[in-house]
Amino acid sequence: MNPGDTIAAISTPLGVGGIGIVRLSGPQAREILGKVFRRRRGKGPLLSHRFYLGEIIRPRDPAVIDEVLASFMEKPHTYTREDVAEIQAHSGVLVLREILDAVLQSGARLAEPGEFTKRAFLNGRIDLTQAEAVIDLIQSKTRRSLEMANLQREGRLGMEIRRIREDLLNLMALLEAGIDFPEDEVPELSGDEVNRRLQNAREKLDTLLRTYDQGKIYREGISAVIIGRPNVGKSSLLNALLREDRAIVTPIPGTTRDVIEEVVNVRGIPLKIMDTAGLRHTHDQVEVEGVRRTRDRMALADLVIWVVDGSEPITAQDLDILPEVQPRRVVVAMNKNDLPRRLNPRDLGEHLPGAPLIPVSALDHSGIDRLEEAIRDLVLDGRQDSSAEILLSNLRHKQALERAREGLEQALEASRANLSVEFISVDLGRALQALGEIVGETTSEDILERIFSQFCIGK
Q: Could you say which DSSP state residue 70 is in?
């Protein structure tokens, strides 16, 4: 990446729509826009942060590509802290590509994936956690994951990491001052004070690390598989959870032959839910393959939703399934609650102690809210969620925090053993390096490339 270049890209999804945007960023943004944009009224330079109506023309051909709104935004008050120009055109694959081609012919180069956001990071507008939050914001599947992404985009996590790092840098400065200037009157820290500061920082890291499992669930979701014997209402339950008719439902056992996958929002948790073929012994080759795939999916799933028919006593086929369910994290949906209940919950409860048994009706949707609550509580292990809390959700952040904690732990051991200050400083330096990687203050180019390669080209 050459920061002296002016980059350009289509910043909206290609396809038919109301508006499509081509964005430029770099020192030649105003000049390049002037080559391809012809104002409808007025002359003179384009003023910053204003929209102008006009037309985009080809640089070597006066033919008009499209009528557009164009704007120029002067640095540093832009997304990248560089000069930025945007062209808002009618959305269409050919229109946007023609506009982009005109811009590239006029001196811009095609942006790399995530290069706009990378420039915002390199120019100090955002830290690395905020840059990564942009990906999470775009990929959010539930309101809760969107809230988490916005908290990180606002810099909440970065500020917390920098506060911890600043405290440790101050401690490091005092320790190294005593090493470098032993004859000067540098305030000497007692062993108890060093221990207190190290313990305080370690506890803050522990607090963040404890949120990872919950944060990861909200960010990435979990996989759940719906199982049960044929004709107990598995597909109907999937439709009820989705609030739409996604799976084919008939009274004929064995209607579902393959695995159907959908993502549903269950109390803020993205649940990748799989409807599967009924588990039973069969000689039908197609159904045999469906049962095999059901077992494969169940082995990989984080959660099993076992559907039983509450209008019938427990059957031999249900009992055949029981051993496959017992080792798993499971919630039991006792379906057909709109009919008189003939299934005794104790017949299942004694084999699945602690598993939620929820009466539901996929037909009239009664009990679906309770089922969703049970799924949420089971997935979060009963933890309460706070929308104001910083939740760690990125594996890179978790691994860096673990390295930082390890460095602090070893520094603390060295301090308690009354080892030389040099030993404490080395371990403390490792912790500071790891914390700096999170916000991008000590991050290698390889890590930056890996992060920004996940972005689309226009972002």
A: E
- The reported pTM is 0.79
Q: What is the pLDDT of residues 301-320, one digit of tens each?
A: 888 999 989 899 888 888 88
Dihedral sign computed on CA atoms, order 453, 455, 456, 457 = negative
Look up residue 28 and give its DSSP letter: T
Q: Is the pLDDT of residue 256 over 70?
A: no
Which structure tokens are listed for 214? 């919950």
* 331 close to 337: Cβ distance less than 8 angstroms: no
Complete domains list, the chain, with CATH: 7-119 (3.30.1360.120), 130-211+392-440 (1.20.120.430), 220-379 (3.40.50.300)
Sign of the alpha-carbon torsion through 186, 187, 191, 196: negative
Query: What does the radius of gyration of the chain's CA atoms come to, in whole angstroms?
Result: 29
Distances (CA, A) of 97 to 62, 303, 458: 17, 45, 13
Polymer length of the chain: 459
Cβ pair 191, 177 in contact under 8 A: no
Q: Tokens 């915002």 sit at which residue?
A: 120
31-41 per-position pLDDT tens digit: 999 999 999 88
- Ramachandran angles phi, psi of 390, nearest 5°: -80, 120
